[in-house]
Amino acid sequence: MKKVLVTGVLGQDGANMCEYLLGEFNDIKVFGMIRRVANPNFKNCKKFLNHPNFQLVYGDLTDEISLQKLVKEIQPDYFINFAANSFVGISWDMPLHVFDVNTNGVTRCLEAIRHFQPNCRFYSAGSSEEFGDVAYTPQDIKHPLRPRSPYGASKCSARHIIKVYRESYDMYAVHGILFNHEGTKRGEEFVTRKITKGVARIKKCIDREEKIEPIELGNIYSQRDWSDSEDFVKGVWLMLNQEKPEDYVLASGETHTIKEFASKAFKYAGISGSWTEIEGEPTKTKFYNNSPKGQNLIKINPKFYRPAEVELLLGDPSEAEEKLGWERKISFDMLIKKMVEFDLNEEKEAQ
Ligand code: NDP
Ligand code: GDR
Predict the structure, then answer these.
(1) Considering only CA atoms, which of 152, 298, 335 is closest in space to residue 219?
(2) Residues taking part in catalysis
(3) Which residues of the chain have pLDDT under 50?
(4) Predicted pLDDT of residue 27
């Protein structure tokens, strides 16, 4: 059996990676690392928690002893690190913690591998946030690092340290640059899930003729390159199984505004609406229900604006497609539809 240590398994990508590996391969044992929290939420792990080839283990990226112990005892063939302080918006509030987890944490993983299982292949999750205020479009792997947030800066530093370890110790260590990816396991603070959960809540209010509280958003004019996390974990596995370790960009090659995502999310829930906008006053933008009651469904709350914004992201996945044979199966529209339907169902089941 090949042994794979995956971190961040209560989050989106870690859970999708476990699901993929256990569903696809019979000869892989997956060790899913979680940190100690008072009330862990296993919602994303339902499909594999009791799988015979899955084992839950404890560790923390801020604690090198736990990482060294795991690598020493498990002797993994692959170490896939998805754990991070992953929310850009909060990274200004706790920059040191963000660096400790996202940068020092990666270095701790590398050190554990170097000392206790140097043949282990390592993946660490890089981000399009490293490109920041972009210099050109679409962004490829050669794009300069121009982060706009403590989070983005922490991922840039992680990228540098991985390169250093790869070149200094001949380790198989990769840092894939992943553009935004979402799905039904996405955390509720991220904008796509916030919107699809909000749409499901509003649909219930409309059906019951109850008062509607609008979804409150920040900058709806920023543009993101969105894909489905389930497509991306397959790309990560391909990156880990090349002849030589090389970093790639995973992206959709399309970009859309938050506003466009929100309009489509309402459309897929069967709610038709219209925007009202005042030129030069983005905080006054609103989205109304096209019903005789004309309720407000989205309003802007400046509280959700960031100290510095990444205005446009659009990735170039062509190298990953050509050299890794990676392909994306779920389109932007399919992704929104899937998330909305899932959240509408969850809302129904909760009734
Ligand atoms: P999530 O926030 O859903 O999951 C992150 C996981 O990391 C959580 O399970 C969290 O644990 C765990 N974690 C946080 N701190 C620690 C720690 N100190 N020790 C151990 N575990 C910890 O993120 P995603 O799944 O969306 O993203 C996975 C990775 O990919 C992250 O590194 C993210 O920065 C990166 N990335 C994500 C993109 C995306 O669009 N999703 C795009 C580009 C990069 P807990 O559940 O206990 O909080
Ligand atoms: P992002 O994702 O910062 O791109 O990071 P997020 O969904 O948080 O924001 C996307 C864009 O939406 C705007 N926005 C809002 N964002 C949130 N969260 N809440 C709001 O109410 C809101 N209103 C508008 C943001 O300003 C931003 O422009 C994600 C994370 O998964 C990172 O870990 C990952 O590295 C990058 O994607 C690539």
Answers:
(1) 298
(2) 127, 129, 151
(3) none
(4) 98
